[in-house]
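Pasting as-is:
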Amino acid sequence: MNDFLIYLRLGFDHITDPSGYDHILFVVALCTVYTLRQWRQVLILVTAFTVGHSITLALATLQLVRYDTAVIELLIPITILITAITNFFFKEQKSRSLSKPKPFNQAWRYGLALVFGLIHGLGFSNYLRSLLGREASILQPLLAFNIGLELGQLLIVGLVLGIAYVTIEVLRRSRLRWTLIVSGIVAGMALSLIINNELLN
């Protein structure tokens, strides 16, 4: 159980580590267009991302799939940029807090989260495999690491929705402005990661 907790903590620390902020940016981009009252939509969206990265995290860690690390490191900020850009086209209704996207748009976002989750899972696996070394059994560390990722991911989601609530409901700022500003910042940071990627230099 002690080893389980160690890998759980490593997973949590990995996704919440400010120095490796690419995964944080992606989660922020996913949640920016939602509010606390839309927690069900956010839960489904995060679940789609979780399913995606859990699949490739397991497959890559078990060495059932192989990939070029440099390519994945380029694709991750590209997923962030695309997600942030889609936020600019998000349609909000007249209500500040009860905006509900059309079902088609909602399903499209879920699919995007799932597909991009597959790419992020490969990024997670690269770090996990470096930690495992010569572990005899990797199934328990894999499970613990994945749970740690989810706990860290939920913390980020909670912070984003909490800040959005204060900004929109308490400070009475425009929800559209909130979405555009946060998405613009995320897009800019993602673009910087892409430009500085080793494959492009």
